[in-house]
Design a protein that fits this description.
The structure holds two protein chains of two kinds. Chain A is α/β, with parallel strands linked by helices. Helix content of chain A is 24%, strand content 29%. Chain A is built from eight helices and 18 strands. Classes of the chains: A alpha/beta, B alpha/beta. The structure holds flavin-adenine dinucleotide and adenosine monophosphate (AMP). The site of adenosine monophosphate has 24 residues of chain B, from helix 1, strand 4, helix 3, strand 6 and helix 4. Chain B: Belongs to the ETF beta-subunit/FixA family.
């Protein structure tokens, strides 16, 4: 039986990379994958999703209640479609982490969060304890609800032909919550979750103003900017830059950790990066135990020098 | 307004987790256990709402082994008025799944009729991030997850949520489930006098049987292993050497 994949759509735009990676994660199931686009205006996102390899068909639900990713109308719609599917999946994002458990509860099944490997239709790997352990679980539920940790998968390619797009109706508005506003900084930088290079700053950076040093290096490298929890808590960086157990999980080709000690909760979000560079003045900082290249020294001399040399 | 706060007893976040070599799970014998950090934040928020005169009663609930009494005492010392221990298992290695926890909490909600449930966003042991959303679904309530700010108004809450692109503000009708994120507040330290006072506060023990919820797991954990470990690489002496290595050895520049 087919698989339903919830697309990640932000303000009508498809998060193509996340959806492409989730599609490849689901491919071992060997089933048709339908992609559900829920949005206020989702025609462009649906058309783009239709061109991803492995998509059986795109279901497009356009409704004002679906414009801001509110959990209750999205979950109601997914549940109304669930009967035709054995697996309901989504890239593990803030949107899907909000919606999928609600869907699972309404279907009386467990949710399986942050899946890193699909062995067969019932068997999945997922990290626990901040990535200190990996569990293999067998689900006994009739429908599997899966959050996919996209950082560990490569995305699918473009398809040779577009999949059909079919319109589905939204459910009546349950009226339990409503959107007030988004407080979002628009940036030209690459998206943290899918960037090839990430430069992250921690408490060692010292202030909001000094965090600009990190941003300048990132911009020079064409990188996304990340941060530790401490840097976010102290207001050096916005919340959506937090990398870690309870922030974003990234696995770029190159991760540069600057003034970050390497707490296990931070490592949980970046230890699968291909190459890790750590810059820290404390030669015993735990981050050095997992770094491929360690540079001991004061970030305020190293980072400007590095930025100038690149 | 009555607030219910579910609190989970988990391995302390500072403890180094050891995976048993036979793949049977994580070593929990003789390790420090504490209240899940997100649940401390949830509890703190409830207490602040009470201090502002918005909340009238706070009930802390934990589901698990009788040892969870210790974190319920902490919740009472922080300012909960009473606590409920759902004695669900004698085995500390048996992790009760979010679906079962949510079904138990739904039963307690029917009984206690709170106007608000504030849960943690995520338990740092199973890293599920599911229970609050599941509870809201089962109850047919609205949900506001990953909260970094909560304002209570007439019949609804205005909640600022930490999302992937930044922050989102939503309005959710009460009763509702809210889950607490890291930046909602900084939990207080419990003082000795409050720990003493907490000993006199009511802690009810509720046997699982009284709630008629099946907690058999839906996910069978067949194996728990340590992930492949990275080892330390090399020291570079200068920025030039770093750039050279990244270009010519790692090939990432
Ligand atoms: C429930 C929970 C969830 C958490 N989730 C996350 C998460 O998702 N992500 C996360 O990152 N953390 C998370 N944490 C927090 C984590 O435990 C650490 O507290 C945090 O990662 C520390 O951030 P840091 O490394 O920036 O700060 P610190 O540990 O204070 O390290 C600062 C580093 O900067 C170095 N330094 C200082 N000055 C300089 C200089 N001039 N030049 C070079 N180096 C310098 C110091 O040597 C030090 O190593 C979580 C914690 C809890 C309890
Ligand atoms: N056994 C439990 N007892 C009480 N509360 C729990 C329990 N398990 C989960 N919770 C609550 O649900 C939140 C999310 O947990 P989880 O869905 O397991 O990540 C926690 O932060 C707690 O508030």
């Amino acid at each position: 039986m087919p698989v339903l994949l919830l697309a990640e759509v932000n303000n009508g735009r498809l998060a193509r990379d996340a959806v492409a990676r989730a599609l490849s994660a689901l491919s071992p199931l060997g089933e048709r994958i339908d992609v559900l686009v829920m949005a206020g205006e989702g025609a462009d996102a649906a058309a783009e999703a239709a061109w991803l390899d492995g998509v059986g068909q795109v279901l497009l639900a356009q409704d004002g209640t679906l414009a801001h990713g509110l959990a209750e109308p999205a979950a109601a719609l997914v549940v109304s479609l669930a009967g035709q599917y054995t697996h309901i999946a989504a890239p593990a994002t803030a949107f899907s982490k909000n919606v999928l458990p609600r869907v699972a509860a309404l279907l009386d099944v467990m949710v399986i969060s942050d899946v890193t490997s699909i062995h067969d239709a019932d068997t999945f790997d997922r990290p626990v304890y901040a990535g200190n352990a990996v569990q293999t679980v067998i689900s006994t539920d009739r429908i599997k609800v899966l959050g996919i940790r996209t950082s560990v998968f490569q995305g699918v390619e473009k398809a040779t032909a577009a999949a059909p797009v079919e319109t589905v109706a939204a459910m009546p508005d349950p009226g339990l919550s409503s959107w007030v506003e988004d407080i979002v900084a628009v940036s030209e930088r690459p998206d943290l979750a899918s960037a090839r290079v990430v430069v992250s700053g921690g408490r060692g950076v010292g202030s909001r103003e000094q965090f600009d040093t990190i941003i300048r290096l990132a911009d020079r490298m064409g990188a996304a900017v990340g941060a530790s929890r401490a840097a976010v808590d102290l207001g050096y960086a916005p919340n959506d830059w937090q990398v870690g157990q309870t922030g974003k999980v990234v696995a770029p080709d190159l991760y540069v950790a600057v003034g970050i000690s390497g707490a296990i909760q931070h490592l949980a979000g970046m230890k699968d990066s291909k190459i890790i560079v750590a810059i820290n003045k404390d030669e015993d900082a735990p981050i050095f135990r997992i770094a491929d290249y360690a540079l001991v020294g004061d970030l305020f001399t190293i980072i400007p020098e590095l930025t100038a040399r690149l | 307004m009555k607030i219910l706060v579910p609190v989970k007893r988990v391995i302390d976040y500072n403890v180094k987790v050891r995976v048993r070599p036979d793949g049977s799970g994580v070593d929990l014998a003789n390790v420090k256990m504490s209240m899940n950090p997100f649940d401390e934040i949830a509890m703190e928020e409830a207490v602040r709402l009470k201090e502002k005169g918005i909340a009238s009663e706070i009930i802390a609930v934990s589901i698990g082994t009788p040892q969870a009494r210790d974190i319920l005492r902490t919740a009472l010392a922080m300012g909960a008025d009473r606590a409920i221990l759902v004695d669900a298992t004698a085995d500390v290695n048996f992790d009760i799944e979010p679906l079962a926890v949510a079904r138990i909490l739904a039963r307690l909600v029917e009984r206690e009729k709170p106007d608000l449930v504030i849960a943690g966003k995520q338990a740092i042991d199973n890293d599920m991030n599911a229970t609050g959303q599941m509870l809201a679904g089962l109850l047919g309530w609205g949900q506001a997850t990953f909260a970094s700010r909560i304002e209570i108004a007439q019949g609804h809450a205005v909640v600022t949520r930490e999302v992937d692109g930044g922050l989102q503000v939503i309005r959710v009708a009460l009763p509702a489930v809210i889950t607490a994120d890291l930046r909602l507040n900084e939990p207080r330290y419990v003082s000795l006098p409050n720990i003493m006072k907490a000993k006199k506060k009511p802690l009810e023990e509720c046997p699982l049987g009284a709630l008629d919820v099946d907690i058999s797991p839906r996910l069978k954990v067949v194996r728990t292993i340590e992930p492949s470990r990275r080892s330390a690489g090399m020291r570079v002496a200068s920025v030039d050497e770093l750039i050279d290595k990244l270009k010519n050895e790692a090939g990432v520049l």
